[in-house]
Specification:
heterodimer, A: mainly alpha, 2 domains, B: alpha+beta, Penicillin-binding protein 2a (Domain 2), six-stranded mixed β-sheet, five-stranded antiparallel β-sheet, 22 strands, elongated
Chain lengths: 424, 657
């Protein structure tokens, strides 16, 4: 891992990441083409179509990326609070002057282009969190730092929730990985947190008594296996009681505290309500499209489900359907592998940074990309609730592509300017 | 720098990998293990579009069209696509007003805003031609070709039948072949030859998008099947002869059946009153059908095969032939006619129309002598050394060979068997089995319980013309391209009387027409026609006129039976009609004086309209529908039927069967 100072500027750039980034953009472009393709009017390459526009977005994203690589990395480090402040202003502005699209007041119209501040909110939050955590004089993690760090994250979350754009807001919570890596949260917390989220969703989907029954069986089994230590048995009992009460609380909150229309909303998001023309329909059609791809897929531009518009939002949130249908299992695994490679690469890059700022920021990038990757693909195949967030670099849309690109390239900029070897 | 938590890198990377594996596992399940989704995808995108074949065309024996298919157009509309159209122009072109337009659009929208639905059904090609010129101006409007039956000459309605949309029962019975909206032959040839006429449906696999809009064919039509047009049929009917017959029978109740004796092909098949078959097509079918069904003169009733009457004097021909074959008379047999036949020990008399004196077999036919046939029947029943019922059974058997008392097997649905009662029927009626000819002597001259359909009458003539045999009368002489004839229609059927016995009868029939006999009114110069009149006693009104004949005497080409209800003497009405038909067919002219022709054309022999008798109509419809009505029930209803003009004979008789 010896990247010398004597290397040239280009030599210090992580070309593997750029390669993966570019591959994802191109895969996205092709699949957007397939998603909007009209067999009756194939037409020539046309800038007015979605894939025409996307190719411009990719090109501009590349230019933005180059610009970022040229800018001094210290600029991003020092100006993080300013960026955060600007983005917060934009998030407030969008609530006032924003345009309402599909129930979400998330867009600021700028001429023919629409800016989505929440996309840049993630970037600003990552930078600011890195700025704040890396500037702590107290080297050991403490509750005060954790609290302020959490506030840095939760403030934009609150603003995004007001739009209300639940999907984007949830993405901020992925930054929990950053706190974990930096030692502010324990592994146990991660497990309990994961379990809590899992149980929350489960409690809404399945009858609470069934869940409690399953928990009882599991805890009973574990307690039996570890019965030699009395402490374990007691722990299991506590776990059972706490999780049961939690499940009941979720159900109570859902049934008695939420208003009916809010309940409906959650039901639809979870695909629990039979709503053939709404979210349930989307999910079903999405599964049909992906499932019908089989091993090798139907071939480029041959997907009937996507071509004939059975899947809604197919060039944005449901772009993975096109991949699944036309490229099959093989193509899907290929795409997932590229993502995984990118994520693992980013973690490796994070760990080779000499500054805490760069490392914390890198983990922020990895967390946010991971969240989008998991939730987006997960919802198209029905393992997580339908939450409308884009698949980074692949989904159609300028705001999303640019903000993710900026997010990634700032990291590459930090990486290229790191000096000496990786600190321990 | 805080790097003491370096190891947590592996936890995080582990989570990433684990989640990726979960996603891959789920994809493996969706895409490889569970193939339900592939099916759903095909269901989503594929619509099987049925391509309807054209129904077979029916031609007459000379290749002239009787039924053809006429293109009509369904105007379709997809409401969502309709934008900025000139409603006024559209209404004008289609002949509707703006409120009508609105209701039609509303109906279409209620069906679906995205899918094409019928805006207007079965628009004629003339209306459509105008509409099509402007079609490009009406966004969202389309058309769909269909065909409907069309009858260029509006003839032979009961023979051709009609088609209608299938009902639940048809669908169930067809084992899923028919679907709602399909058409099926409901009567006549359309029904009898449904399997051949309907053709084979094709299937086009059409791809559609999420809004059900067509998007080209599936796999370039690899799995499509082509629609096959139904087989064409060649009818035995002679169109010109049919037109003439229908004209002659206008405003009369009755039947005309003409058969080519050498083949059994039916040349003319008239049931009067008829109706215009074009009424049973298109949008007005339902209304017209109900009107016809409730018409008191019963145009839906197929008289030639469904009405059965006592044959009257024409039956003497059969009596003369079966008598000779049985050996009870021969060519030389003479009976003396004092103006009637006395029976029952001289207490009763069956009157003759005139005093014929010494009457030979030939003369008995020529003059239609009742006395003579009284003796013949008496000999048949009383002088064969058998008991009355036994002798009667032999007589009945002989009649059966002449096609009486059972269905002939014409290729038309709804044929009735007519009636020759069993000996048991008379035994029951008279209380014991010792009855003799005098008990039912009226049978000897074709009266009493006998019931014969006009088709059976014409068939008797065909037997006489052939001197002893017949082919099953049929209406379709060729099927499909190869003009295949059904096997059952090529079978020569022996009528049970040897050829030598026919000559005296034919001589008598010839004299009846050509030498001042009862059928003199039908004489045609240059053609030796042999005929026999009949006047059927009708206790409910004017007698029925019957005439049957064949011509020419040697090498006969046509056998014909004419039955005119309530027309009086057979010689007056039925004979001229038969004469004109025969001459038209053989010489393609009519030499009868114009005034006689006009008299026939213009005669109105319809019964005076009676007070509407609704129960009767009701009964008749149940009768035709439900053939298995218990005899008891129909017997109970019989007295009421006495008043009916048309079907009383067959109705009364049905309970004896």
């Amino acid at each position: 891992m010896n990247s010398g100072q004597n290397k040239s500027f280009f030599g210090r750039i992580d070309w593997i990441t750029i390669g993966l980034w570019f591959a994802l953009c191109i895969i996205g472009l092709f699949n957007i083409h397939a998603a909007v393709y009209d067999a009756e009017n194939p037409g020539l390459f046309n800038l007015a179509t979605n894939y025409g526009k996307q190719s411009i977005y990719i090109f501009t994203a590349l230019i933005i990326g180059i610009c970022i690589l040229i800018i001094d990395s210290r600029f991003f480090m020092s100006s993080a609070p300013v960026i955060y402040f600007i983005v917060v202003l934009l998030l407030i502005a969008v609530l006032i002057v924003g345009r309402n699209v599909a129930g979400n007041q998330a867009w600021i119209p700028l001429g023919s282009f629409r800016l989505q501040p929440s996309e840049f909110g993630k970037l600003a939050t990552c930078l600011t969190l890195a700025y704040y955590l890396s500037n702590q004089t107290n080297k050991n993690p403490n509750m005060k730092t954790l609290f302020i760090g959490a506030c840095i994250v939760l403030f934009p979350v609150g603003l995004v929730m007001l739009q209300p754009d639940t999907g984007s807001a949830l993405a901020f919570f992925s930054l929990v990985f950053v706190f974990y890596r930096e030692g502010y949260l324990s592994t146990g917390f991660l497990i309990i947190g994961g379990l809590a989220i899992f149980l929350f969703v489960l409690a809404l989907l399945i009858n609470q008594w069934v869940i409690i029954g399953v928990i009882a069986l599991l805890c009973g089994f574990l307690a039996f296996m570890m019965r030699k230590k009395r402490k374990n048995v007691i722990n299991m009992l506590i776990l059972f009681v706490v999780s049961s009460v939690y499940v009941l609380c979720v159900d109570f909150a859902y049934e008695d505290i939420l208003q009916p229309h809010q309940r409906n909303r959650i039901d639809i998001i979870l695909g629990k309500m039979d709503d053939p023309k709404g979210q349930g329909y989307n999910l079903n059609q999405s599964k049909i499209a992906i499932g019908s791809g089989q091993l090798f897929g139907k071939g480029y531009l041959q997907g009937t489900q996507t071509k004939y518009n059975f899947v809604p939002e197919q060039s944005t949130d449901f772009i993975f359907c096109t991949v699944g249908e036309e490229w099959g299992f093989v193509g899907s695994v290929f795409l997932i592998s590229i993502y995984l490679a990118l994520l693992l690469r980013i973690v490796n890059i994070a760990e080779r940074q000499r500054t805490a700022f760069a490392r914390i920021y890198a983990y922020g990038v990895a967390s946010i990309l991971f969240f989008h990757f998991f939730i987006n693909i997960g919802m198209t195949i029905g393992i997580v609730p339908v939450i409308g967030i884009p698949l980074p670099f692949i989904s159609y849309g300028g705001s999303s592509l640019w903000s993710f690109t900026i997010l990634l390239f700032i990291l590459l900029r930090f990486d290229s300017s790191r000096k000496g070897t990786v600190g321990i | 720098m805080n790097n003491s938590f370096f190891n947590r890198k592996y936890v995080i990377q582990g989570i990433f990998i684990a989640i990726a594996l979960v996603i891959i596992a789920r994809l493996f399940y969706l895409q490889i293990i569970d193939d339900r989704y592939l099916l759903s995808a095909n269901n989503n995108v594929m619509r099987k579009v049925i391509v309807y074949p054209a129904r077979g065309v029916i031609l007459d024996r000379n290749g002239q069209v009787l039924v053809q298919n006429e293109p009509v157009y369904d105007i379709m509309v997809t409401p969502r696509e309709v934008k900025d159209i000139d409603t006024l122009l559209l209404c004008d072109l289609l002949g509707i007003d703006s409120t009508d337009f609105k209701t039609r659009m509303q109906k279409a929208r209620a069906h679906s805003p995205y899918r094409a639905s019928q805006f207007m059904k079965q628009v004629s090609s003339t209306t459509f031609a105008k509409f099509q010129e402007h079609l490009y101006k009406f966004r969202g409007f389309y058309y769909q070709n269909r065909t409907v039956r069309s009858y260029p000459d509006s003839i032979a309605a009961q023979f051709l039948g009609y088609i209608q949309e299938v009902n639940e029962r048809d669908i169930k019975k067809s084992d899923g072949f028919y679907r709602p909206g399909d058409y099926i032959g409901a009567s006549g040839v359309e029904r009898a030859y449904e399997d051949l006429l309907r053709g084979k449906r094709g299937v086009k696999n059409q791809m559609v998008d999420a809004l059900n809009r067509p998007k080209g064919s599936f796999m370039e039509g690899k799995y499509d099947t082509v629609a096959v047009t139904g087989d064409g049929l060649v009818s035995s009917l002679d169109k010109d002869l049919q037109i003439l017959a229908e004209r002659l029978m206008k405003n009369k109740l009755g039947s005309v059946v003409a058969i080519e004796p050498s083949t059994g092909e039916i040349l003319s098949f008239v049931s009067s009153p008829s109706y215009n078959p074009n009424l049973m097509v298109g949008r007005e079918l339902g209304n017209n059908y109900m009107k016809l069904l409730h018409d008191e003169s019963k145009p839906m009733f197929i008289r030639p095969i469904q009405a059965s009457y006592p044959p009257g004097s024409v039956f003497k021909v059969v009596a003369a032939l079966t008598g000779q074959q049985a050996g009870v008379i021969n060519e030389q047999t003479v009976f003396y006619c004092p103006g009637g036949y006395r029976y029952g020990g001289g207490r009763a008399i069956m009157r003759c129309t005139h005093v014929d004196g010494a009457t030979s077999l030939v003369k008995s036919i020529k003059m239609s002598c009742n006395t003579y046939y009284g003796y013949v029947y008496a000999k048949m029943i009383d002088s064969r050394g058998l008991s009355g019922p036994k002798a009667y059974d032999l007589w009945k058997e002989a009649l059966g060979k002449f096609g009486l008392g059972h269905r002939l097997g014409i290729d038309l649905p709804g044929e009735k068997p007519g009636l020759v009662p069993t000996s048991d029927f008379y035994t029951k009626r008279y209380g014991n089995g010792s009855w003799r000819s005098s008990y039912n002597i009226s049978l000897s001259i074709g009266q009493g319980e006998l019931g014969i359909t006009p088709l059976q009458m014409a068939n008797i003539m065909a037997i006489v013309a052939n001197r002893g045999f017949y082919y099953r009368p049929h209406l379709i002489k060729g099927i499909g391209e190869k003009r295949i004839v059904k096997e059952e229609f090529t079978e020569k059927i022996f009528a049970g009387v040897d050829a030598k016995y026919y000559e005296p009868v034919i001589e008598g029939m010839s004299q009846a027409v050509n030498q001042g006999g009862t059928g003199a009114a039908s004489r045609i110069t240059g053609i030796e026609m042999c005929g026999k009149t009949g006047t059927v006693q009708n206790p409910h009104g004017e007698n029925h006129a019957v005439f049957f004949a064949f011509a020419p005497r040697h090498n006969p080409k046509i056998a014909i039976a004419v039955f005119v209800e309530n027309a009086g003497y057979g010689g007056t009405w039925a004979a001229p009609i038969a004469s004109m038909m025969v001459e038209k067919y053989l010489k393609d002219t009519i030499s009868l004086p114009k005034y006689i022709q006009d008299r026939v054309y213009n005669a109105n022999l319809l019964p005076k309209p009676k007070k509407p008798k609704t129960p009767e109509v009701k009964k008749d419809s149940t009768q035709t529908k439900n053939k298995t009505t218990a005899p008891l029930k129909s017997a109970a209803l019989a007295p009421k039927e006495e008043r009916s003009v048309l079907v009383h004979h067959s109705q009364v008789r049905r309970n004896h069967e």
